[in-house]
């Protein structure tokens, strides 16, 4: 490993609720929860006004209402949260390719080799928070540290709308006072066991030593020992880049002829466009392809290089389809279409071996 790493962890504040407040000004000054409001509804998240009443994620809606009688509840709108998430992740990826999303609203960045912002991870985190606030219209909290586990703790430290930095020189002092509950993987059960051993902080854990911890907790014990010393070698792992995106549909009743297929392709093209927006981003397209399965289960595909299309339309696929099926009308069981991306930039992966 080459020297000290610089990791940023970014986590949007009360994410679903923040999106709702952004898009509807009447929700900005009220205690707000997002979730199912019915008899068995559950709170997905809530804004910080509602948290002041004790409302929390995963709480039954009925309990949330009891704690906070003025609570406003709205149903979740996942497509909108996904699109806001893409916007946020796009801003992060502008800074570096080494972005590892953990969910819609949080990600790790390895900025060790970024030279912009004078190479300062603190300045980078400030810049990201500012840009997301201005361009997306929501607030995010960020943590900066020499590794993932500390960066994640740091982003939580000053939430909401906060930034907290743990410099390499601060790590020893920081972890010594850190409650074991804050450690990754330490839930109620492990915490209770540790307390039973007289261990409240990482400092306490340091004095116990790795043998005792491994004996008591198995493999997790060693990780606890490492974290108690502020160590975590896990790399930021960038997801493998999609090589293709496609949609296909199997019909409960075979499509009788070519014109029926062409009608269905209108829907498939629309679905492909949505999926491309989600998965493909703005990657350049290399090929288009069409797949067909006849009622006798024989399957055929045809692909053609088409580099000029940005978002493929029905007219881009019809020639391929017609070439593939020829003149005969045979009943069709499955129809699919898709794109393959140009593969000239090697995928940025930093795969590593932890756990
Ligand atoms: P979190 O980041 O855990 O929570 P949050 O963004 O709402 O609040 P904050 O980070 O400021 O503490 O989760 C992100 C989103 O995931 C959250 O907005 C809603 C969803 N979620 C659920 O649907 N159910 C849950 O139990 C949790 C914890 C989150
Ligand atoms: Mg969050």
Automatic annotation (TrEMBL):
The keyword DNA-binding applies. Residues 7-187 form the UmuC domain. Its EC number is 2.7.7.7. It catalyses: DNA(n) + a 2'-deoxyribonucleoside 5'-triphosphate = DNA(n+1) + diphosphate. It is found in: Cytoplasm. HAMAP family: DNApol_IV. This is DNA polymerase IV. It comes from Marinobacter salinexigens.
């Amino acid at each position: 490993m080459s020297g000290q790493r610089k990791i940023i962890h970014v986590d949007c504040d009360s994410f679903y609720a923040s999106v709702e407040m952004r898009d509807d000004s009447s929700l900005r000054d009220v205690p707000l929860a997002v979730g199912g409001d019915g008899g068995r509804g559950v709170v997905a998240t809530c804004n910080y006004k509602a948290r002041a009443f004790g409302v929390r994620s995963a709480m039954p809606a009925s309990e949330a209402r009891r704690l906070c009688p003025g609570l406003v509840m709205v149903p979740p709108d996942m497509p909108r949260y996904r699109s806001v998430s893409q916007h946020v992740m796009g801003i992060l990826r502008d800074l570096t390719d080494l972005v590892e999303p953990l969910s819609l609203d949080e990600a790790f960045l390895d900025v060790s080799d970024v030279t912009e912002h004078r190479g300062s991870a603190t300045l980078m985190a400030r810049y990201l928070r500012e840009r997301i606030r201005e361009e997306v219209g929501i607030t995010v909290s960020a943590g900066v540290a020499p590794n993932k586990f500390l960066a994640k703790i740091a982003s939580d430290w000053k939430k909401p709308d906060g930034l907290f930095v743990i410099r390499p020189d601060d790590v020893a002092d920081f972890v010594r006072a850190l409650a074991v509950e804050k450690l990754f993987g330490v839930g109620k059960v492990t915490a209770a066991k540790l307390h039973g051993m007289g261990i409240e902080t990482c400092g306490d854990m340091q004095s116990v030593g790795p043998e005792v911890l491994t004996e008591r907790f198995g493999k997790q014990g060693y990780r606890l020992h490492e974290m108690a010393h502020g160590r975590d070698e896990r790399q930021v792992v960038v997801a493998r880049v999609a090589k293709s995106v496609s949609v296909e549909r199997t019909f409960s009743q075979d499509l009788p002829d070519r014109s029926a297929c062409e009608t269905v392709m209108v829907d498939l093209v629309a679905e492909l466009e949505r999926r491309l927006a989600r998965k493909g981003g703005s990657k350049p397209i290399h090929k288009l392809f069409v797949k067909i399965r006849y009622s006798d289960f024989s399957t055929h595909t045809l692909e053609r290089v088409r580099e000029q299309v940005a978002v493929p339309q029905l007219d881009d696929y019809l020639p391929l389809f017609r070439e593939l099926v020829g003149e005969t009308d045979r009943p069709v069981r499955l129809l699919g279409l898709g794109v393959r991306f140009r593969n000239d930039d090697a995928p940025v992966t930093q795969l590593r071996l932890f756990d």
